[in-house]
Amino acid sequence: MRNPVDHDVQNVFRKRWSPYAYDPDRDVSSEQLKSLFEAARWAMSSFNAQPWRYIVGVRGRSDDIWKGVYETLVDGNREWARNAPVLALGLAELNYEHNGKPNRHAAHDLGAASASLALEAAARGLAVHQMGGFSVDRARELFDLPDGVEPYTAMAIGYPAERGTGEGELEKRDSKPRQRKALNELVIRGGF
Fold first, then answer.
1. Is residue 24 a contact partner of residue 60, using CB atoms and an 8 Å limit?
2. N or C: which terminal CB in the chain sees fewer CB atoms within 10 Å?
3. Which CATH class is domain 37-159?
4. pLDDT score for 144
5. Where are the chain's structural domains?
């Protein structure tokens, strides 16, 4: 298991990680991708509005979308994401469909959906690396996004490269010990 934990959790939480090195020769099947986005579909959301939307590019199947998502990435992310067979953008509708009022929970709900997607990926031996380093303006332009739809994250999805096969600095990043803040830094009132 990749992640050292202090308390008992399901194995999928220990397996989930965000690698920089992806196996460029291993495709993700349509069935696998459907399962990942099915997990996202069943995430919780305010008023069950499900404000998340995804733009998904799969190398070899929707190259134009893959290239478009790739083009939105900052240079530092392009360096390693070029090997990911799937690139996606996570978007949120900023207003509720049922009443048109602002949905201040839209980004949170997108995060819940994307976390569900990432955990399903980990359970299947895949990995998801979410990125904030992308151009919102370029995403709007390339994908003709309407007002009220906000791009929040880019994602690389694929099979992690085997240990020792990554490139220089990327291999070092992937080999660093995983760390998280202690629970007492995160639970700031109350307790157990």
1. no
2. C
3. alpha beta
4. 97
5. 37-159
